[in-house]
Amino acid sequence: MLERDDIPTVLLKGRAMHEESPVFNPSKYDDKKVEALLIQSLEDNYNVCVVVAEDDGQIVGGIIAMAFEEFYGPERTSADLALFIDKDKRGGLTAARLIKAYEAWAKLVDVSTVTLGVSTGIHPLRTSALYKKLGYGDAAYSYRKRI
To answer: Using CA atoms, how far apart are residues 45 and 107, in angstroms rounded to an integer?
Structure first.
């Protein structure tokens, strides 16, 4: 899980993911908004989850997710907001370990369904293949239009 001392590094990693993403980089990245979400995860671990992955004491990736009630009923669900892995650490076990940690958190906070998105435009086919290997199925399609 995230620790307060990790926040500056996670902000930098988040900015790097944002800049790399052809989907997200046309939009402004707001350090203060992301920092507030990271702090919220420290104060409200029931609804916000941030897990970091380390290699030799250095953060090399992370996942940010939120849990909430479905709009149509009381069942709790969750969705990731970001999954980021350093470029030189991709293709290994880091992403799978982060996803397993996300799933473990979701079980602890009474979530019955977890959702992962493929929304950055960074290696979508490879990312989808990993999710399917971990037992996830296609659940929806998302379309985006900048106006």
So the answer is: 12
